[in-house]
Design a protein that fits this description.
The complex is a heterodimer of chains A (about 220) and B (about 100).
Chain A lengths: L1 H21 L3 H21 L3 H26 L14 H25 L14 H9 L3 H22 L16 E4 H4 L10 E4 L2 H8 L12
Antiparallel strand pairs in A: 1-2
Helix pairs in contact in A: 1-2, 2-3
Chain B lengths: L4 H21 L3 H25 L4 H31 L13
Helix pairs in contact in B: 1-2, 2-3
Classes of the chains: A mainly alpha (about 220), B mainly alpha (about 100).
Chain lengths: ~220, ~100
């Protein structure tokens, strides 16, 4: 019975994972990834870890995937184009390395198979939130605190990345990416006192406004 | 017949390999990001399987910490993706090659 459930959920997880890679539309990939998370949560329940299963559904399938789907919708991502192959000798090298990796993994699995293992008993208190919480706040307090510092860094980093720079001095030069140019830089006829910013969204647009050759346009390179 | 430890490890290895393959063959930044999440989940499955079979809570604690790292990575990573899209107006990783010599 347990073996049947394992095969069901493991097959679902691997199938959805293949779907994540195979789909060309990012939204379908995201929905397949939610399938992977849900079936992994089921596997965690089978491993007598109900707390981790609940956190998996809430944090991964809830918070993180909502963020990803939100970004996909916001950016209106197009489907991937069929990619051209310019890899050359890398393809056989990749096949050889993958064969070595599979051999290593099967060696590890086989050696684990030979070692004695005790099957999970559902009466243990290993997976309960009480035991996890008491360990987290006694023996593993330092990793917990480091995690809080990490989250603080993530908040600061995300805000720094999302911030738009509004004001730039009049001596602005062309830098890659979105930038703000003073109006008297763009149109020389306007007197120097007027420095109303003109916003451009890309380097090529800014270079066009300034009348400079665009060295960073990916379409015009090589 | 109950599931053995090696079964879980095999599933985890398969998920991790699929994630690596996706990071290599995907050209979309969001697709690569989701494949990295897949790899993190494969490692989480290994942690929980070992924790359950060895009757030790430590593995599940580290799954908790890995999830926090994944959440932080999601926030910063998606911020970077939006910054790339704002500057390059594309999500193709081959287009964002300005650091290439």
């Amino acid at each position: 019975m347990l073996a049947l459930l394992f095969i069901l959920f493991a097959g679902l997880a691997v199938g959805c994972a293949i779907g994540v890679v195979a789909q060309r539309n990012p939204l379908y990939s995201a929905i397949s990834l939610i399938g992977v998370f849900i079936s992994l949560a089921c596997l965690y329940v089978m491993l007598a870890a109900p707390f981790i299963a609940a956190v998996q559904v809430i944090v991964y399938a809830g918070a993180i995937m909502v963020l990803v789907v939100f970004v996909i919708m916001l950016l209106n991502v197009e489907e991937e184009r069929r990619q051209r192959t310019h890899l050359g000798f890398l393809v056989p090298a990749a096949v050889i390395l993958a064969a070595i990796l599979i051999a290593e993994v099967s060696f590890i699995v086989a050696s684990v198979e030979r070692s004695p293992s005790t099957p999970t008993t559902n009466i243990s208190d290993v997976g309960l939130s009480a035991s996890i919480g008491s360990q987290l706040f006694t023996a593993y307090l330092l990793p917990f605190e480091i995690t809080s510092i990490l989250l603080l860094m993530a908040i600061v980093g995300a805000m720094t990345l999302a911030r738009r720079i509004k004001e730039v001095p009049s001596g602005t030069r062309v830098i890659p990416g979105g930038q703000v140019l003073a109006l008297n830089v763009v149109e020389p006829g306007i007197p120097l006192g007027n420095t109303t910013p003109v916003e451009t969204r890309s380097t090529s647009e800014a270079a066009e406004l300034l009348g400079l050759p665009d060295e960073h346009d990916p379409l015009k390179r090589d | 017949m109950t599931p053995q430890l090696s079964w879980y490890l095999a599933v985890s290895a398969a998920l991790f390999t699929i994630g690596v393959t996706g990071v290599i063959i995907k050209r979309n930044v969001i697709g690569m990001f989701m494949c990295i999440e897949l790899m993190l989940n494969a490692v989480n499955l290994t942690f929980v399987a070992f924790a359950s079979f060895f009757q030790d809570t430590t593995g599940q604690l580290f799954v908790f910490i890995v999830m926090t790292v994944a959440a932080a990575e999601a926030a910063v990573g998606l911020g970077i993706i939006i910054a790339i899209f704002r500057n390059r107006e594309t999500l193709d990783v081959d287009e964002a090659s300005i650091l290439k010599l």
